[in-house]
Amino acid sequence: MDTIASLFSFITTPVSWIIVQFHALYGAIFGPDTGWAWGLSIVSLVVVIRICLIPLFVKQIKATRNMQALQPKMKAIQERYKNDKQRQSEEMMKLYKETGTNPLSSCLPILAQSPFFFALYHVLSKIASGDEIGVLNQSLVDSARQAHIFGAPIAAKFTDSPEKVEALNASLTDVRIVTAVMIILMSASQFYTQRQLMQKNVDLTVKTPFMQQQKMLMYIFPLIFAVLGINFPVGVLIYWLTTNVWTMGQQMYVINQNPTPGSKAQDHYLQRLIKSITSHGQVRSRRKRSVIQAIVAKGPDRNDNERRFITGLAKAGFAAQADGTVAKSETALLEAEGAGSAHKRQQPKRQSKSQRQSTGTQPSTTKSTPSSGSERARAGQQKSGEPKSGQAKSGQAKSGQRKGPQRPKHPSSKK
Predict the structure, then answer these.
(1) What is the tens place of the pLDDT at every residue in 301-336?
(2) Residue 320: strand pairing partners
(3) How far apart are the two ends of the chain, measured CA to CA in Å?
(4) What pLDDT does residue 359 have?
(5) Is 169 left (phi over 0), alpha (psi -120 to 50) or beta?
(6) Hey, which residues does 152 pair with through a beta bridge?
(7) What are the Cα distances from residue 102, in Å, to 68, 93, 97, 141, 263?
(8) Which residues pair with 326 in a beta bridge?
(9) What is the C-alpha separation between 142 and 151, in angstroms, rounded?
(10) CA–CA separation, 189 and 191 (whole Å)
């Protein structure tokens, strides 16, 4: 680890300078030799670095979503050229070029802060040995050696020998308890961050090997850092725990405000948006208007969450417009209510098999009604003096026939 840290010694001067500036601020409040002054200086170093890395974090989000969207196409390419690895690689690169996706973009924040991480490790190693480094002169190094976090020096490690810990004016028990607690918190925060991403901010309609890979990393990364953490000084553990907490908070904000399409987080966000529109009667921010504009532009390609959003707006009496605003729409309300009432009216018409069979016998009983009516009609005709037998069966006499009783026809004659 010391060899790797020495490779990034070129950045130790900027890192040590930032720490010294914040130490001057916190030292005036808590005292220059306290663990609070040096610990908060390291925390502030993390904040400065992560603020500078926000553009890379945005690229990471876009790259991760693009990779999720490309997984079905990548899987098709792998199945199509499974016997030709070279052609498979060429098609993959072609797909990345056409869509403007860089697989390494998802690792940019980690890669970008790695030099700062190893530079801080190098600085703390020099503090532990009592050597000057960067802009840290001997007096500042001695002050940092006296700084303790809950009884553990910021330059001490879990694997340090009792003699080395005693030279830093501390006990081995305190150092191991503090470092063990920090390692557990560091691993747990990283696990929770990845788990939150997989459960809430992943498109559940896309089942690909990429998701399985992310699930594996959710368990592997915390274990790796837990094993490596025993070789980290307390100051480096503070750095890594702080950056994990920052990542967790940053991701929670992204999940709530800019969720992945098709995820549970998007469904919750759109339901909150419907409540906001219903209570205020309008879209109150430009970002929300851009979300609605994108949903309207998709048309029939909307996912289930977006279709439920449009339906929910219609039930609330609003219609989404192409510019991202909403307008009062009685037609949309009537259509939504009509669809609901039509659905309710259709429910009582559903009959069981026995009911359908019982209703099937009703026509035979209803046929007797017209026959009884015709009998009453014939009875009325008989009372009025009209012909009885011949005309009762054949109705009125045809034109050209004589009235009165007819001669019986010869059996050989045609009817």
Answers:
(1) 888 888 999 999 998 889 989 998 998 876 655 554
(2) 326
(3) 117
(4) 57
(5) left
(6) 149
(7) 12, 10, 8, 43, 22
(8) 320
(9) 17
(10) 5
- Give backbone dihedrals phi and psi of 102, rounded to 5 degrees, phi first: -120, 110
- Residue 146: per-residue pLDDT: 83
pLDDT in tens, 80-97: 888 888 888 888 888 877
Total residue count of the chain as it appears in this document? 415
DSSP designation for 84: -
| Distance, CA of 229 to CA of 186 (rounded, Å) | 9
* Upper half-sphere CA count for residue 114 (Cβ side, 13 Å): 10
Determine contact, residues 282/326, Cβ cutoff 8 Å. Answer: yes
Asked if residue 125 lies in contact with residue 5, where contact means CB atoms within 8 angstroms, the answer is yes
CA distances from 174 to 28, 30, 125, 162, 389 (A): 27, 22, 19, 11, 122
| Residue 168: pLDDT over 50 | yes
CB 5 within 8 Å of CB 20: no
Cβ contact 253:59 at 8 Å: no
Q: Which among 163, 164, 170, 145 has a CA at the least distance from the CA of 155?
A: 145
Q: Where are the alpha helices (DSSP H) in 31-107?
A: 35-52, 54-80, 85-99
Q: Is 160 helix (H, G, I), strand (E, B) or coil?
A: coil
Q: 3-state class of 351 per DSSP?
A: coil
Q: What angle do CA 38, 40, 41 make, to 5 degrees?
A: 60
Closest C-alpha to 195, from 112, 251, 257: 251
What Å distances lie between residue 2 and 89, 125, 186, CA to CA? Answer: 37, 8, 21
Residue 360, beta-bridge partner list: none
Q: Cβ(145)–Cβ(155) under 8 Å? A: yes
Is residue 285 classed as helix, strand or coil in its secondary structure? coil
Count other Cβ atoms within 10 Å, centred on residue 311: 15
Q: Which residues neighbour 183 within 8 Å (Cβ) at sequence distance 6 or greater?
A: 158, 225, 226, 229, 230, 232, 237
Tell how far CA 135 is from the center of its chain: 45
Asked if 15 and 133 count as a contact pair (C-beta separation under 8 A), the reply is no
DSSP H helical segments within 130-263, as ranges? 138-146, 162-167, 172-200, 209-228, 234-257
Alpha-carbon span 195 to 68, nearest angstrom: 16
> 182 to each of 93, 160, 178, 224, 241, how far by Cα in Å?
42, 16, 6, 15, 7
